[in-house]
């Protein structure tokens, strides 16, 4: 093991996606003396168990912006680092099977647009074209957010590291 530093500008505890992301962003800001501590190995905690679905729209503008920034990072991370990230921008569907849910989805689309996210309202057949196995017999409508996606949290963590 290398000599343990006696001082650091930042000490980050936890080698999951949050800890590695913090170290990555500090390094991008030019910080040189950043130490990341992990008790086992990178991604051995909750990051390993994460599903990896990345939906950006939340009711809070700040959290939505954070998730948009994450998608932008994931989209270029593999090219920047040479490390596979497992990121796939496959889009996300929100399905309504009754009018009340469709009203909620329309409100979500308005919110998405106000937060700068692209979100499209779809007829049932249009939603089925995006996901052909779907039975649309009881579908009233849907919304599609094309920049949502799926990631491999462990791979993203390794790329950030």
Question: Keywords for this structure?
Answer:
single chain; 161 residues; alpha+beta; 3-stranded antiparallel beta sheet; two-stranded parallel ribbon; 7 strands; 42% helix
Q: State the total count of DSSP E strands.
A: 7
Query: In angstroms, what separates the terminal alpha carbons?
Result: 18 Å
Category by helix and strand content: alpha+beta
Main β-sheet description:
3 strands, antiparallel
How do the strands of the widest beta sheet line up side by side?
4-6-5
Sequence of secondary-structure elements: EHEHEHEHEHEEH
Strand content: 15-25%
Radius of gyration, in Å, reads: 19 Å
Given the structure, what is the number of helices?
6
- Regions with pLDDT < 50 over 5+ consecutive residues? none
Q: Choose one word for the global shape.
A: elongated
- Helical coverage, percent range: 40-55%
Average predicted local confidence, pLDDT: 93
Descriptive account of the structure:
The chain is of the alpha+beta class and 161 residues long. It contains six helices and seven strands, in the order βαβαβαβαβαββα. The protein has helices spanning 17-28, 46-49, 61-81, 99-114, 124-130, 153-160; strands spanning 10-13, 34-37, 53-54, 92-96, 120-122, 141-145, 149-150. The strands form three sheets. The chain has a three-stranded antiparallel sheet. Strand 1 (10-13), helix 1 and strand 2 form a beta-alpha-beta unit. The chain is elongated. The two termini are 18 Å apart. 25% of the residues are buried. The mean pLDDT is 93.
């Amino acid at each position: 093991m290398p000599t343990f530093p006696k001082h650091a500008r930042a000490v980050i505890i936890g080698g999951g996606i949050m800890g590695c992301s913090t170290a990555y962003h500090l390094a991008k800001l030019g910080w040189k003396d950043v130490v990341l501590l992990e008790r086992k190995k990178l991604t051995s905690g909750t990051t390993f168990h994460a599903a990896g679905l990345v939906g950006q729209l939340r009711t809070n503008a700040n959290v939505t912006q954070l998730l948009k920034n994450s998608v932008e990072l994931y989209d270029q991370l593999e090219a920047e680092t040479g490390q596979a990230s497992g990121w796939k921008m496959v889009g996300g569907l929100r399905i309504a099977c009754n009018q009340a849910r469709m009203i909620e989805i329309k409100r979500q689309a308005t919110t998405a647009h106000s937060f700068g996210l692209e979100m499209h309202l779809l007829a049932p057949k249009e939603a089925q074209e995006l996901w052909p196995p779907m039975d649309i017999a009881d579908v009233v409508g849907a919304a599609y957010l094309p920049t949502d996606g799926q990631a491999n949290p462990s791979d993203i963590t390794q790329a950030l590291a």
